[in-house]
Design brief:
Structural class: mainly alpha
Number of helices: 8
Order of helices and strands: HHHHHHHH
Largest sheet: none
Mean pLDDT: 97
Radius of gyration: 19 Å
Number of strands: 0
CATH topology of the largest domain: Hypothetical protein af1432
Distance between the termini: 27 Å
CATH architecture of the largest domain: Orthogonal Bundle
């Protein structure tokens, strides 16, 4: 068993306690890529009314970005952009952005966080929402970055005939990006 802190209130902690916590934290942090990939696998078989399951959608999105020559960080963002669907159903973009924030650029973080409102351009009018809601974000320096992500990679990735790369092919990329 690893060393453990002995305090019962944080205001009683010692240097030795914090050393024990940090040692455990560092070991746990190394497992983040595997935990993220395990969580992504929860999207397998979850169609949510779409003609492809959510995992296939994520794989298609990442494959398109990869084949288009996007860098590894961007491809991992594309792969994980909908990982929040299971726990953050009403705010899934913010969940993905929170997971990836320590590892990605400000532009990619913003893209992840805002992608649902950009995607809404294609369906908000059908649910009584403003399809142009993304226009309120036009002053962001990352607006065009998010727009490209949606139009080139996310929006067209509901094609049951598209041959996406496998999750195993993306695993090394996820490991590298989430191990920075």
């Amino acid at each position: 068993m690893n060393k453990q802190a002995t305090f019962t209130r944080f205001d009683e902690c010692t240097k030795q306690d914090i050393d024990a916590v940090i040692e455990s934290y560092n070991a746990f942090a190394k497992g983040l890529p595997a935990r993220v990939l395990d969580h992504l696998r929860l999207l397998d078989g979850d169609f949510g009314g779409f003609n492809v399951d959510r995992l296939q959608h994520c794989l298609q999105t990442a494959t398109r970005a990869h084949y288009d020559g996007k860098d590894e960080e961007y491809v991992v963002c594309a792969l994980l952009h909908d990982i929040g669907d299971t726990l953050g159903t009403y705010n899934h973009g913010a969940v993905a952005a929170a997971i990836l924030k320590p590892f990605v650029s400000k532009a990619n973080h913003w893209m992840l966080e805002q992608h649902p409102v950009f995607q809404g351009f294609y369906y908000f009018e059908h649910i009584g929402e403003d399809k142009n809601a993304r226009d309120k974000l036009k002053n962001s320096p990352h607006y065009d970055h998010a727009l490209e992500f949606i139009d080139k990679y996310d929006m067209p990735s509901f094609d049951h005939d598209y041959q996406a790369m496998t999750l195993a092919e993306f695993e090394p990329m996820v490991n590298r990006v989430l191990s920075r």
